Amino acid sequence: xxxxxxxxxxxxPDGRLSTDPDVMEAYxxxxxxxxxxxxxxxxxxxxxxxxxxxxLDWAQRHxxxxxxxxxxTSLAGGATAIDGCVVLSLERMDSIREVxxxxxxxVAEAGVLNADLDRAAAAHGLMYAPDPSxxxxxxxxxxxxxxxxxxxxxxYRVSRDAVLGLEVVLAGGRLLRTGxxxxxxxxxxxxxxxxxxxxxxxxxITSATLRLRPRxxxxxxxxxxxxxxxxxxxxxxxxxxxxxxxxxPAGADGQRHPARYRRLEGDRLRRWRAGAADxxx
Length: 281
Ligand SMILES: Cc1cc2nc3c(=O)[nH]c(=O)nc-3n(C[C@H](O)[C@H](O)[C@H](O)COP(=O)(O)OP(=O)(O)OC[C@H]3O[C@@H](n4cnc5c(N)ncnc54)[C@H](O)[C@@H]3O)c2cc1C
What we know:
The chain is of the alpha+beta class. It is built from eleven helices and eleven strands.
């Protein structure tokens, strides 16, 4: 087993592969509490697409399972290690390769934090719309692998609707590029959509071409409270006629959603994030 790991270490830059017990402990669990993590064989912290290529090539030749990992914020156990696996962390691949304001797109590596991409877009009057509540600590790769979405999905939909193309490494270390850079792209199989939401089972996302949108003037630069401002038209009152009249229909879960949004925003969400309150609504 040591010989096998030495072979992988030899093709990776120094410091990328670790078998340090403290490092492996830090990378073997995500935010899930109901899944017991296994013991990984090693952790590889990829710094480039090539690191991912050589790791998947090595893993296939030796029959070793690979668990890709972004920010480790999964609540479903997807980034939890299994016994004998390689945990392949993408967090060091955190470069925003390009922001193209004219074409309203960005190219970001998998380890870029959602919030960092949105901040880079804001400098051009644009925004990256998908906003899982973990936006400050989750990665673009993880967001796409889980098809994450947050409150803004009501208007802008979810991660799948914000991705134009992907760079993906397949099992065995083969590189695949899918999609396009244009808003319109109608020919051929839609492999991009297939890969989004596949949680690493079909390949490992190393970078993505993402759609940006004009940043609404009424949104505060800080996303917290954004929905509240839109809902109230930024003027302290709800301008939607049915909601203003109290006639907002209850959702399938029997809740009146504006009330749920009110609970989600504000102090309670902040206190939940800080661990000082129960999970909101
Ligand atoms: C406080 C909190 C709030 C949250 N709010 C939301 C929310 O509003 N909406 C929502 O949808 N989710 C939410 N989540 C869940 C979680 O943040 C999302 O699923 C997020 O998209 C995971 O991103 P990550 O970078 O942490 O990925 P990880 O947790 O590291 O990985 C998630 C899954 O994707 C795979 N994966 C990771 N990176 C890659 C890659 N580059 N290529 C292929 N597969 C990969 C992993 O193997 C795993 O299966 C929340 C979690 C927390 C802790």
